[in-house]
Amino acid sequence: MIRRLENFVDGGWVSSGAPEALKVLNPASGAVLAEVPLSPAQEVHLAAEAAAKAFPEWRRTPAGERIQPLFKLKALLEENLDSLARTITDECGKTYAESLGELRRAIENVEVACGIPSLMQGYNNEDIAPGIDEQMIRQPLGVVAAITPFNFPAMIPFWFMPYALATGNCFILKPSERVPLSSNRLFQLLEVAGFPRGVVQLVNGGRATVEAILDHPAIRAVSSVGSTATARYIYAHAAANGKRAQCQGGAKNPVVVMPDADMEMTARILADSAFGCAGQRCLAASVAITLEGAKNAITEQITEAARRRRVGYGLDDGVEMGPVISAESKGRIEGLIARSEQEGARILIDGRGRNVKGFEKGFFVFPTVLENAPPDGEIARTEIFGPVLSLMGARSLDEAIRTVNARSYGNMACIFTRSGAAARKFRSEVNAGNVGINVGVAAPIAYFPFSGWADSFFGDLHAQAHHAVEFYTQTKVVIERWPSDWSRRF
Ligand code: NAD
Hints:
By secondary structure, the chain is of the alpha/beta class. It has helices at 41-60, 63-66, 68-79, 81-92, 96-113, 116-119, 161-166, 180-193, 207-215, 228-240, 263-275, 295-308, 327-343, 378-381, 397-405, 420-429, 465-471, 484-487; strands at residues 7-9, 12-14, 21-25, 32-37, 123-129, 132-140, 143-147, 170-174, 200-202, 219-225, 244-248, 253-257, 285-291, 346-349, 368-371, 388-394, 409-410, 412-416, 434-437, 453-454, 457-458, 473-481. α3 (68-79) runs antiparallel to α5 (96-113), α3 packs across α8 and α4 (81-92) packs antiparallel against α8. Bound molecules: nicotinamide-adenine-dinucleotide. Nicotinamide-adenine-dinucleotide (NAD) binds next to α9 and α10.
């Protein structure tokens, strides 16, 4: 019998009454791992009600006490690292090492949020006028929710949850319906971490569940991560309902390689960026723009790295790249590669139609390298979200920066060079929220906001660190007068 996942509401596990459910598959083998309910609006309502009920006491709990369950959670995450990583690999497809990597970043966010008693401090001025003082304090919003994607099932909920809870909000997670097992495991740990009932909740579901979150009057703020179409929709809908929103979207990340770059290092880092997590990272390099003098070396070394990459089941020894998330995703990626060929691109390494022995039902696309895709063609404009790297040329750094800035996305842009001046110009002029200099995956550590510009982000305050603290709090400004003659009466 297939296990049906439960929601975590009001301090306990509850079965969803959802008439519809989806099968959760291991993308390496196609095996059914579980079934996830598509929770209806009424179940979002119950979670929101429980959260609203828990809020008054939770917000009055001193910040230093609110972070104690987070310290416990950190210890639990460390203790359960191996089983969590295996769960991520089994439902998401990435390698065990990649799963451990995302868990480290999840834990780092818990550590940062444990600093809330300092991070949440306001500020004040004495004597803004004679005998009058003014102060700004931060207070939590109330009930907040996050809607997360499939590609980092453990890390992305932690871009939001620890900050929301530490600042005194009550939190609802709606994880991706394609990878709900990781959240299920995480909530088993949250259950023992010691949060009061109603403070943190898990509601599984799909689009209708999101609609119910966006329409619920008790939910004050929504964080989401997903494709640009989803981000745009959630942002508009949340704003129309008067909610605070931060919505991270898709990406198409360019990497510029200057002729003075260390070619061996660049090719190695570029291959990890383009093919790591099977290209299903919002910070995956998708286009390499080489300047004359870099082109031949990069083309040669990156095709070799693509050819050599060991593809397979992420829990098997030596595997460097797993499958993509679904059969639909594999079909979409292979279709894009086929159409790029029709558009005039040359396929240097073709990852289509390949099998992994023993995993013939898996959704594998092998590393693929293309060159000369037309800049206005489909492959150059579309987020592929698979292990496909396009190579193109530029005559100068100015031209490369113009190409970078012509994209509609602005998640990440990277440059490889030994020149401080070229790096400085690039850093200053590119339209991207996360910039890498001799770095291929410019993922901000938890002490910095995870940025993103243009079609890659809708909102103003980003995930992680100070931005998260600001997002989850509202500022109150208090102006006080305490005449000194009043105290003489006592
Ligand atoms: P997705 O947009 O399909 O789904 C994301 C979440 O939104 C899921 O929980 C899903 O249930 C919900 N959702 C999907 N369609 C919806 C709709 N029409 N209305 C309301 N809710 C909807 O994304 P995905 O395939 O799970 O994740 C991959 C995408 O996420 C890629 O585009 C990737 O670039 C992006 N991503 C961005 C970042 C970032 O930081 N910018 C990070 C990770 C992933």
